[in-house]
Amino acid sequence: MPNELKETFKSGLIQYVTDSTDSMLDNFFGIMPNSYFSSNDEQTILQHLSAILLANISGSQERIMLENHDASRQTYIHFGGYPGLLGDILQQIPAHKSIQQARAYTANDNSLVIDVFDFGQAKQATRHSSSMRRETLLAELKSPNVEYDKATRETLRDFVGAANHNYLARYSLAQLSEHARLAQKVRNTLDSESIMTPAAGASSAYQIAYAAGQVDSTNLFTRVARFCGKHGIDIRESYVENFDLNTPEQRTLLVLEVLISEPNAGQMSQFNAEINRLAYLDKEVLQVAFTRPGWSLSEAEVLVGLCHLADQALSATTSGEFSRHTMLTDVLNEDGIAQALARLVLVRFDSKSSHDFTRLHTELAATINDQVADSRVAQLFNALLNLTQHLLKANLYAPRRYALAFKVNPEVMVSQQRPQQAFGIFYVFGKAFDGFHVRFEDVARGGVRIVQPQAIDQHGIEVKRLFDEAYQLASAQQLKNKDIPEGGSKGVILVKPSANTMRCGKSYVDSLLDLILDNPLTQERRCDYYPAPELLFLGPDENVSDQLIEWIIQRAGQRGYPLPASFMSSKPGAGINHKAYGVTSEGVNVFLQVGLENIGIDPATQPFTVTMTGGPDGDVAGNLIRILFRDYPDTAAITGIADGSGCAEDPEGLARDELLRLVEQSLTIAHFDRQKLGPRGRVLGIDEPGGIEARNTLHCRLSSDVFVPAGGRPGTINEANAPQFIDAQGKPASKLIVEGANLFLTPKAREWLTRQGVFIVKDSSANKCGVICSSYEIAAGMMLNEAAFLQIKKTFVEEVKQKLRALALLEAKTLFREFYFQPDSSLAQLSMQLSQEIIALTNVIAGLIDSGRVPRDGVCRALLMEFFPRSLLHKAGDTALDKLPASYFSRAMASVLASRIVYHEGIRHLQALPHERLEQHLIHYLQQEEVTADWVRKIEHSNLPDKSALIELVKRGATGTGLKWG
């Protein structure tokens, strides 16, 4: 009986499964699109059918996820589709899994959706394998009946050769040609391109092809899918293709077959206008736009960007009451008012808008007063509303913008902590980054740095001080630039952990160009509240690569920036790369030498020890290591180095050859060969026990004659931890500090340590030579074309380095001389006073030159000729100086004369002089300079012994003495 029963059930089950299989197969082959069968092999289809059959038998309608043995493919099967389904699935895929290929299929009756995702390199063999379809397409392409020019044929041939055969099986040669055109258009760019065309079949069927350069395919696919879902667009089929992975030419192609129910012109217009911006928006923007009905991408972007900017503007006055996260949450709780605020900004910069900004502003203020009950939130809304009036420029209507950028009225950023008003402020908000550019003069120069914390909590700390860092660096740069025509500026880009810094850097710079260049495509619509022309002069700082420098110059030229070679200094070819030539470190070394001499050590003959932060792979630190061993091979000993990777220390001095090896190979200090350590030496990486603490405390633990911060974050030594630099007996870890890195010490820490007997050479003095070098480079770019510059580059660079060392020596000796006569002051205070005196004097002299009261010829021109390297003037010819823009010429003359007066005569030379007598005194000074120049010429042609030394004495003292006693 049991066996008979068993056979009965077996027979019944087999029949049931057979009937279920037949029914399922009839249905499956009837509803799935032909593209599914043509682009999947039998084994894959069988796997899908097995899973569907099991679900049908069990009666389950739950989503099915299939994964192959090495997790390189995932398949999702859904029983029923809806607009936004694909976006929901894509959000579940881990961020680290990069989609290389994707296919999505929807049944004709919408009862079944199959999504297939291939990750990593698993399918590269499939991509490049031969297939009948590929061979057919390539043969068709060779046919004389195909009307393509040679370039198009080559592009299409490469495209077909690189694409996956599953994708090729779906589309005709004409369609593939259009896709290839899009992919080629975004090659080696950050751009995105899309087209929407009617598809065969239903009147509501369309095909969307979307290509984007240098993006993560998973991230982009998710964005596009969610965007379609927001607009009620049902994705029926989709394909993802990647080309030139992990290269600057990387690009992603998405092809979507969609259904748009009841499309209307307004919906399609907004869809087409916004889809190309998806690749550039921060995920916080997308979260707002995708979760709030009726919000456009632009409205969401403006609101988030405005909150980020307000966070920086309010941080100094609200004592941490608001943060960017709580700020956005609070305003979005009042959805209607928040959207009205965003629309207000869009109206402000749209000259074609029919709305009046002032009226809308007044109405919104009244709405906030009437409807926002929470006084704290009302205060926040009013602060944001006030900020909208201080936005002077925006790139909102620039085509192909990579980020959102505002020019901000500097008044709104003034606070007790930031008392000096900057001249110009730009704010840029983009995908995974925020950035500021601050300048203190109309014509200003300074570096751009990229800051990328390794962890999200550290990013939160850096966010709180982003603008303050840019402001303080620009302020320090203003003091540092005293010797050159340009004022001080600084750019800081804060990038989220793991984001692409190259992409963020490009987006930041291109957005600045949006604001300062006229664009014929948007000029009629653009509305600016600062009509004066603006020029920016950038330079490299932390984490700015040679590749980014070259891209910036190329991009400036493409976009019509005047003198694009002057837009960015330190060019690898036709420029002076700071790291390659060590120009900043040459100046740091001079201040170190003079500082040591003033604490009783002759570095040329007496041994001395050095500790530093900043690794051998860095610009300032790496070059300083090389220069110290070049200039003091028998006396210099570097006893400790700390950088981002860890630290190395040896009281006998770290092995010279090993340090130079690290510099040569651009390696961090953690790569130091431990076999080269002395008996008391050690190397600790940050991933080793105690490594982080040892790294962070090295400058306080190790005793040395001089400590050189040549790398590290601002405020590393501050008023709270400065006492750690002094031991229990009151002795400092180092008697001398030379600030090779900007803002490593806070002002209060400097003053406290000075009172403990530490000599501190401030950053705006110690590392000034980098920006002076950049100024020389840019002046050369104004006088010579690239070919002519390259002919003299070797000689020019050596002459520039000589001038840098001379300018550093002038200031170093001036500072220590002034300190000798003002011991109650500090070197840091004197450094600031010296810079302020030169800058103020430069402004006065420039005004006199521009007004004609001081002639451009004669001694002024002679001084300027003396300032520039001889090789440059010789190559440029007799009209060299005439090639400089008039405003630059005046500032150059003025800065040369002003620095000469202060360095030769002292900081207090003009302080007691009444302002009304200053002009006459300067004219007399110039006249006496002519007399001095005549004396110098006579000595040069004499037979006096030691005439070189005599000439230097006359140059430095004769003019002042002649004024007093002549």
Key terms:
single chain, 966 residues, alpha+beta, Rossmann fold, 3 domains, eight-stranded antiparallel β-sheet, 50% helix, 15% strand
Would you kindly provide a written description of the structure presented here, covering whatever features stand out?
The chain has 3 domains: 33-39 and 63-246, no CATH class; 297-575, Leucine Dehydrogenase, chain A, domain 1 (Rossmann fold, 3-Layer(aba) Sandwich); 580-823, Rossmann fold (3-Layer(aba) Sandwich), CATH 3.40.50.720. Helix content is 50%, strand content 15%. Strand 5 and strand 6 form a beta hairpin. Helix 1 crosses helix 3 (42-58) and helix 23 packs antiparallel against helix 29. Residues 122-129 have low confidence and may be disordered.
Query: What percent of the residues sit in helical stretches (DSSP H or I)?
Result: 40-55%
Nearest-integer average pLDDT: 90
Strand content: 5-15%
Overall structural domain count:
3
- What does the radius of gyration come to? 34 Å
Low-confidence stretches: 122-129
Query: In the CATH hierarchy, what is the superfamily of the largest domain?
Result: Leucine Dehydrogenase, chain A, domain 1
CATH topology of the largest domain: Rossmann fold
Kindly report how far apart the N and C termini lie. 135 Å
**Silhouette:** elongated
